[in-house]
Amino acid sequence: MRLRRITARRSPVHGMGLFALQPIAAGERVIEYKGELTSWRRAAGRQRSGAGHTFVFGLSDVRVIDGSRGGNSARFLNHACSPNCEAIETGARVFIHALTAIAPGHELFIDYRLSVDGVLTDDIRTRYICHCGASSCRRTMLRGNAESA
Ligand SMILES: [Zn+2]
């Protein structure tokens, strides 16, 4: 049996986060982002009731992976503007890979690059303000081109 490489615990950035327990090499596959394969519409309906974390992963087609249903600890991945991980889509599955070497104890991050359907309101903007603290921080978890509609 392999040693557990990652764990979810309280993050200094936001809510729960995912942390390395073992050294992770650059390029290594860390975890699959699991959840129910569903539509944006259905997932958005579920999200409205909950606040805070975003558990929905948009695929390049019209579907999403809803980590709040049948998901694993990958749903606790926080956003950073200079992330140490990236999500790679393979068919209808998403795997989280390390972009850089990650030392034990360090939090794992991906760049959410969220896109918003319809008008980008101040409310949405406020909800997705980024606090990652990187010098390159965009101050938002939204996709770079997500300007006012
Ligand atoms: Zn940031």
TrEMBL record:
The UniProt record lists the keyword S-adenosyl-L-methionine: yes
Subcellular location per the Swiss-Prot or TrEMBL entry: Chromosome
PROSITE patterns in the record: POST_SET, SET
Gene3D superfamilies: SET domain
Pfam families according to UniProt: SET
Gene Ontology cellular component terms for the protein in this record: chromosome
GO molecular function, one term: methyltransferase activity
GO biological process, one term: methylation
Coarse class of the protein's main subcellular location: cytoplasm
Protein name listed in UniProt: Uncharacterized protein
Native source species: Paraburkholderia atlantica
